[in-house]
Amino acid sequence: MDYSSASAYIYAKMSGMLKNTFVGKNSVRLFNAKSLSELWELIFKSPVPQIPEILLANKIETEAVKLFVRQYTKLLQNYSKPDNFLIELLGRFDVENLKVISAALSVGEQTAPRVIRLGEYSSLDYDAWPDIKKITAGSRFSWYDKIPAEDERFLLDFKLDLEEIRFLWKSVNKVSDSSRKILVDFYQKFFSMQNMLWALRLKVYYKMSQQDILKRLFYVGEEPSADDPICKFACEILPKSIDNFEDWENWRFANLLNPHEDGSVWNVDPMWIEQRIRFGETKRVEKLFHENSMTYASLVMFYILKLQELDCIRAATESLRLNVGKEEAMYVAGVSAEE
Fold it and tell me: How far apart are CA 221 and CA 228, in angstroms?
């Protein structure tokens, strides 16, 4: 289809699909499921596989991702020539697949692990297992051509994530329709907030120094610094004391802070801040989805909403598998019962 016809058709299809997507207030239904079997039927509307519960938990998560990839790629195919950014969003699955393959190879696994197949949109040759050099050959990950030692994997995983963010940033700045500025602004804030949360975790949980944290930030320019488009928020929190509320009370995101009472011990809580960010994110994305109905931005927002759904499905699955309470699981997933 031509751009206009495809955009109208895709928006109509996505609008119908989102009515049954488990995001916002609808995601609470996932956490109301009393068993993994009930959760399967709720998500897939099909008979429950006759397999042990522990395997069913893994299958729910795997099949949910596969379903999302099928839905997204089917929508994508309505464009005769989709914008590169829409295709490159799927690169995150190649990144995660490569991490899984690397982990399996580094501990000597003989059987190829399960990966999410992207068909024509994949840049990796998964059939070349166990030759990692052939798996990555011809892709932008061709530098990843050796099996890493177990203690090297963290650094290589970070390099993969950094490369993916930098690649997406360059790509979103080249979006070919009128939604480019909207998408650039969205991803700048999205990456900035994720970077800030990453810095907070390193600061609070690992007690890292400012310099050590700075070296571990994600960035899209030449180096991590306050001048980088996605580093500013992270750099602002580096000099703050994690147990001094006065350092934080005038912070630009002070409304996200965990409660403070005069005279009581207080420490900034990264988990609390992350959940407050998540609580508001769905409504923001849904608003952008509807406001940009005839542009690439609507498909991008659909993609993001479906990723949020996958997070909720994982949290609900794990809560049932580990017998975690509904409220705790919803909190971890960033779901509010008052949505």
Answer: 6
Strand, helix or coil for residue 182: helix
Q: Which two tokens stand for residue 292?
A: 């940009």
Q: What is the DSSP string of 85-121?
A: HHHHTTHHHHHHHHHHHHHHHHTT--SPPP----GGG
**How far apart are the C-alpha atoms of 198 and 200, rounded to whole Å?**
5
CA distance 258 to 330: 17
Rg, C-alpha atoms of the chain: 21
State the average pLDDT over residues 1-29: 93
pTM (2 d.p.)? 0.94
Burial of 173 (C-beta count, 10 Å sphere; 0-12/13-18/19+): middle
Query: 150 falls in which pLDDT band (50, 70, 90)?
Result: confident
Burial class (CB in 10 A: 0-12, 13-18, 19+), 248: buried
Segment 199-211 mean pLDDT: 97
pLDDT at residue 74, rounded to an integer: 96
